[in-house]
């Protein structure tokens, strides 16, 4: 009498080679325009410091004990980090959709998780590099001291990954290049400028300060600024909680997209 054979168990393995191939391809595309990618934040940051610090910096009241140039540095970094993360991730996944190669990626032996890790990881890497370049550029104008370097790096990475996920969603949602640029240019940039990047929200009247608290970018900038100087408009715990909530929301939307196939197969 033959013994029943045991059913083989299927082991889930992370396809490192597939993830690395996509990640390397995305970074190689960025390296082809490396000077343009790095020159833009250097020139922009320099202009911000020259215009804002020289023209109006001395007229801005400061209750934080730091100069106006030092005060706006976290806002400048966050502005570039948000726009770069969204733009890099959205264009990275939209290009395969536009060329039709998205079907090759979906049929390849890589899971949705591995696709997300590769594209989001590459986009976050590029945006973090830009953030470091801005920090180095600012160091040429003034001395920089980071009171909480671990928190600063953590916020930098968490924000880059979170908004790269958000950009990934935009890249899947967009039907054309106009839609691809709509949210970064007409939504994220205004929210950053109105989110305390160049001023403290405590300077606002109470009504407008209450309205500003509905802007999620306020919490990102405030938490990032706290990592530099130990002071912020919002409690660090609240900033971290809001950032994690945005991360969880973006991740949940991407999971839903891959489960339903929304804008992936049409």
Description:
The chain is an all-alpha fold and 266 residues long. It has one domain (16-52, 66-260). The chain contains 10 helices and no strands. The chain has helices spanning 16-31, 34-56, 68-99, 102-107, 112-139, 149-173, 177-193, 206-212, 216-229, 236-260. Helix 1 (16-31) runs parallel beside helix 5 (112-139), helix 2 crosses helix 5 and helix 3 (68-99) crosses helix 9. The longest helix has 32 residues, at 68-99. The protein is globular. 36% of the residues are buried.
Please tell me how large the radius of gyration is. 21 Å
Q: How much beta, percentage-wise?
A: under 5%
Q: Strand tally, please?
A: 0
Broad structural category: mainly alpha
Q: Into which percent range does the helicity of residues fall?
A: over 70%
Tell me the distance between the termini: 54 Å
How many structural units, i.e. domains? 1
What form results from the Cα inertia axes?
globular
Count of helical regions:
10
Main beta sheet: strand number and arrangement? none
**What is the H/E string?**
HHHHHHHHHH
**Poorly predicted ranges:** 1-11
Please tell me the overall pLDDT. 85
